[in-house]
Specification:
Layout (H helix, E strand, L loop, with lengths): L1 H8 L3 H8 L3 H5 L6 H16 L5 H11 L6 H10 L29 E10 L5 E9 L4 E8 L4 H12 L7 E4 L3 H4 L1 H9 L3 E4 L9 H15 L7 H17 L16
Parallel strand pairs: 1-4, 4-5
Antiparallel strand pairs: 1-2, 2-3
InterPro entries: Integrase_cat-core (IPR001584), RNaseH-like_sf (IPR012337), RNaseH_sf (IPR036397), Transpos_IS3 (IPR048020)
Pfam family, one: rve_3
Protein name: Integrase catalytic domain-containing protein
Length: about 260
């Protein structure tokens, strides 16, 4: 308004500032735009288009730890908000639940592995399952096995393949499904000296690490793509698992991907 008054009515800057109650410093201020702002905006748009489930935290952690950018988080967040890239926050339902047993946090690698299943369907309506295996210590994804049926023998085969290149865990945490309570699975765990830790029925929060991992899989790619064959699912899962372990920031690792965490 002061600038308009000076331009149209030919009054002095001092009088215009006094009339509108602003300082002359404010009147003469010009923002120092940086070329980095355009670069930050470009990278944020590219990240959110490629990973639509990422919020500001994951985007900033990726820029800081993976791309090694040194921009201040306030600056990145301001541009993030100006671009209206914020995720919609869903209201939480408040339910009264009995306090479950506390989830034990591992202190070293290969101390606890967690196993769980997921379900989805192909474009022709055929249903398939995913067997997910993670190391709870750094939330590292170890395996994603896809199949129309994943009985106990397939679970054991997947774990044997992991033991070919990785040290065996002390504990395997899983739910009370038929694949995990079968005699074959219990016998396999006993032969390898692995203790099976079953969660309480109806208490998925006792297996919270892999439940959170399942959610990441669901929103990152499983619900975003429609696959025609099981081979397509397995190929995509294998490629995504490498991306998850090497590039995707994880807040439990202070913003670093699992294999970059100390």
């Amino acid at each position: 308004m002061a600038q308009q008054a000076v331009a149209q009515h030919a009054i002095s800057i001092r009088l215009a500032c006094k009339a509108f109650g602003i300082s002359e410093t404010c009147y003469r201020y010009q923002a120092k735009l940086s070329d980095d702002n355009a670069l930050i905006a470009e990278q944020l748009i590219e990240l959110t288009e490629e990973n639509s489930d990422w919020g500001f935290g994951l985007c900033f952690s990726y820029l800081r730890h993976v791309e090694s950018c040194c921009w201040n988080h306030k600056r990145v967040y301001r541009i993030y908000c100006e671009l209206a890239l914020n995720l919609r926050i869903k209201p939480r339902r408040r339910l009264k639940r009995h306090a479950p047993e506390p989830l034990k946090e591992p202190i070293r690698e290969n101390q606890v592995w967690s196993l769980d299943f997921m379900h989805d369907q192909l474009s022709d309506g055929r249903k398939f399952r995913l067997l997910n295996v993670i190391d709870d210590y750094r939330r590292e994804g170890l395996a994603i096995e896809a199949g129309f049926s994943l009985p106990t023998i397939r679970v054991i085969r997947t774990l044997n393949q992991l033991l070919e290149w990785r040290e065996k865990p002390l504990v395997i945490r899983c739910y009370n499904g038929p694949e995990f309570i079968s005699h074959e699975f219990v016998r396999w765990a006993t032969e390898h000296g692995i203790r099976i830790e079953y969660i309480q029925p109806g208490k998925p929060q006792q297996n919270a690490y892999i439940e959170r991992y399942n959610r990441t899989i669901r929103y990152s790619w499983l619900s975003k793509h429609l696959f025609d064959t099981l081979d397509e699912v397995q190929d995509y899962a294998t490629n995504w698992l490498w991306h998850y372990n090497h590039e995707r920031p994880h807040q439990a690792n202070k913003g670093r991907p699992p294999l970059m965490a100390a």
